[in-house]
Amino acid sequence: MLSFKNSQLSTRTWVTLTFVVLFAIVLHRLFRFVRTYMWNPLRYRRAMQAQGVSGPTPFLMTGNLPEVQALKAESWKRPMNDISHDYVDRLFPHYRLWTERYGPRFLFWSGSQPIILETDPDLIKEVFSSDHKGPYAKYGPQTVLSKRVTGDALFALNGTKWLHRRRAVRPAFRGQLLEGLVEPVMTSTKEVLVSKWEKRLSESGGRECYIEDIVPHLAALTGDVIARALFRSSYEESNHAFEQHKELIRLEFQKQPLPCSWTPRSLIGYAKVAYQRFRRRRELHQSVLATVRGMVEKAMAQESKQKAHAHKDFLSLLLAANNDPETVAEGFQMSTKDLIQEARSFYTAGYQAPATALNWIFMLLAQHPTWQDRIYEELKEVAGDEGMLTMQVLNSLNNLSMVIYESLRLYTPAPEAHRTAVRDVQLGNLRILKGTSVSVCIPKLHRLPEFWGEDANEFNPERFRGGLSSARKHAVAYMPFSFGPRYCVAKTFALLEIRCIVAMIIQQFRFQLSPQYVHAPVIIGVGIQPKHGLPIVISRREGRPTMSENVQ
Ligand code: HEM
């Protein structure tokens, strides 16, 4: 009797408790919603307005994203009239509009994220100089995506964790150590691109051959390069994992469109697709993880047995750096899990940006064939008729470097960079509240007339004749690889890879833009891409043996 009474009492208590918990959850969600989407925008906007900075009114939840998307869609609809590199207003129509309305510095919202566009080079330098203890850190959609795909890798870390990882990874990218990576880059270029173009030329029977779009060719090439350079010893397996990794990134990037109506049928269809996507993502994630884990463990076993294997791919460079007595003594050594995350992160970082850079280098060289000839002559002079490419040869090709620097200035692969204030901070005359991102439009910096002259929108590699440091009139006037402690850790490798690929192609071919080329730069993902592809016409260089003849 007593126990029945007790259990009745406890059932009632249970029900009450459940209601209290549910109510607390709902209240908490409601509170967060009001704070994130209503209170914060009000507070941040008031704080900025009090300091003379205004901006467009954000919508609830989406901020200014719908306006940005509409402006971009309108601006990117049509191609440019001619092949002009003056595309900043086209690519960032919202910046132009808001600059006209609110001045050079304004506050806008990406969803619930407040962003200040900063254009003053001195202040940009200050923000990007922030180190792991500084007032700015790296948060944003790219870091979120990177964390989702690869976990805690260098690209997405902050604070002391980032510092330790950067110290552990950096030695793998030091100059001379990269010598061994020229060979995998050459092998990929020969197999994935040169031999295919040679075949197309012979099949076309003529001196010239039309290639409808080189963008996928270059993406396949840089993908092959990173898979080969990262895991040379298990390239075949790694190549498969790499394809899966690319699919995973595509799935993470492409948001599932919302249901077209709110009918039960459409909602069930939506839920079905969402579940299938979730399952596929999980499948891919597990498969890539298993392959990369296998390769890392195999490389670790080889590394301890046979030192001769070292320095032939990134993984062995990473392992060597990781076992370096200094790294061990300072406590920066990475665990196997860290190594796996870094390897996966290099997959992502290592193929997109070089492919984007190469697209525009080839577009500009095709538009300016005299620069192809200058590079070719210089190559003959430095490398002789045999044309053997080594790291020393590649680094001494001044005309090639000038063209690459100028292309990266005009078409920087990652055009926007952000840092987020981790505490309230003074930036110039502005008090920035914790959580605000400071955004930089790099193509704008790369065209400032005070640093680049009145011809800033022209392709003129001559401006780099005296080297990069003398051309750059301000620390942040040129930042394709970013600036400050978080600049691209793989910059030396990326430049080596690009030099090698361009040199090998110029050794074999001449190329020009096809009349079908339509100039319409747009942003896809995070990089600037030619919207209608890049069709070119190639011809063989007079008197050059084909690569296959060369090998025999
Ligand atoms: C032309 C080629 C490349 C360009 C233009 C480029 C550009 C950049 C930029 C702008 C950043 C800094 C982003 C920021 O400040 O928020 C960055 C960071 C990074 N890049 Fe690259 N990158 C290139 C190639 C590569 C390659 C080939 C790899 C790997 C093999 C790589 C690995 C990384 C990593 C790991 C970071 C994060 C560094 C850190 O946060 O400490 N990048 N890159």
Main β-sheet description: 5 strands, mixed
Q: In CATH terms, what is the architecture?
A: Orthogonal Bundle
SS strand fraction: 5-15%
Mean pLDDT: 89
Q: Structural class of the helices, strands and pairings? A: alpha+beta
How are the strands ordered across the major sheet?
A: 1-2-8-5-3
Q: Which range best describes the helical content: under 10%, 10-25%, 25-40%, 40-55%, 55-70% or over 70%?
A: 55-70%
**CATH homologous superfamily?**
Cytochrome P450
Q: How would you characterize this protein structure?
A:
The chain has 552 residues and is α+β, with helices and mostly antiparallel strands. It has a single domain (118-551), classed as Cytochrome p450, CATH 1.10.630. Helix content is 58%, strand content 9%. It has helices at 2-49, 65-77, 88-91, 93-102, 121-128, 141-150, 159-169, 182-204, 215-230, 235-253, 264-305, 314-322, 325-330, 336-367, 369-383, 391-395, 398-410, 442-445, 449-452, 468-471, 491-508, 547-551; strands spanning 107-110, 113-117, 136-137, 208-211, 416-421, 425-427, 430-432, 437-441, 509-513, 521-524, 527-530, 536-540. Strands 1-2-8-5-3 form a five-stranded mixed β-sheet. The longest helix has 48 residues, at 2-49. The chain is globular. The N and C termini lie far apart (97 Å). The model has no long low-confidence stretch (mean pLDDT 89). Bound molecules: protoporphyrin IX containing FE. Protoporphyrin IX containing FE is lined by residues 138, 154-155, 166, 345-346, 349-350, 353-354, 357, 413-414, 417, 480-482, 486, 488-490, 493-494. The site of protoporphyrin IX containing FE (HEM) has 23 residues, from α14 and α21. One of its GO terms (cellular component) is membrane.
